[in-house]
Task: structure prediction
Amino acid sequence: MGFAGGAVGSNSYSSYWAGAGLSYKFTEQLSSRLHATLSEDDFGKNNQFGFSVTYQL
Result:
């Protein structure tokens, strides 16, 4: 799944952002997720990457 967007405001403010993620279910109890988000505006950049593993008893 993915998303993207942008904004323009007063005083020449602008920003954009985008992200994507995916997950995989190995078994009924074990799954993993990976995601990335990238954004930039007049105040700087904010890039995040994440990974998780879930095991349910």
